[in-house]
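Standup notes
- DV: blocked on the single-chain target, sequence here:
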Amino acid sequence: MSRYIAWITQALFIISLSSGLIIVFAYYPSLAYDSVQKIEYIIPFGAFFRQLHYFSSEALVVSLLLHVVIEVSKKEIKITFNSWIFSILALLVALFLMFTGFVLKADQSANAAAQVAFSLIKDTPILDNFLSLFQDNIVFYWKFFIWHIIFLPILIIYAVFKHTKRLRVDISYFTVALGISLLLSFLLKMPRDIALEEKVLHVKGPWFFWGAENLLQFGLNALSVNMILLLPFAFLIFFYRKQNQKILKALLLLWVIVYAYFSI
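- DV (later): unblocked, structure below
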């Protein structure tokens, strides 16, 4: 089961990458919000490919999470430690890809999510030295754009290759992944773009970032929130050691419950 999900996950990534390449040529970081609206309402099939890109990416993250959950639930992990580490890295990079993609839609919710991310970096010792890698005071979305279309895709391709030892996907898995993406695109709607001039009471970032936003509102400092966000990845890294697996399973479950509570 885990192997089939892994191949479907890889196919979902190819669909997400391909659909992203189609719409990237109509996106300009200096005119980010206008570019998104042009893709959505003016460019032929722009809305379709944007929906496909969004839902294939969402399905990619969910399938990666499911793949990790299945591996964690097994009595014994049969892959090597290096392969296990690269699967965790792929999950982490996929979340960063989702976040940068969310920011690039350039509406009010995207801007708010970016500001929260900036505060988490700026107010955390050591991390504050890397703020300039993400924040651009001249063209706000430029560095997010570079991360999203160049650095993070290269990193996840490398992680997936090191984990699976191949990048080729069988047509059967690709067909299933495409079917899932198209079905989600037709049945569900993307979160609406909130115009910059629209008056709203509250905006939210991507779903996996809600807990971090709410923890900050509860008064936790940036360092504590960052540590909470990194905890499950630390648990997963040490999970490979058999003698700690029962404790780490309990800690992972506890983290999921607590983070889900603060997210909701």
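- Follow-up: The mean pLDDT is 92.
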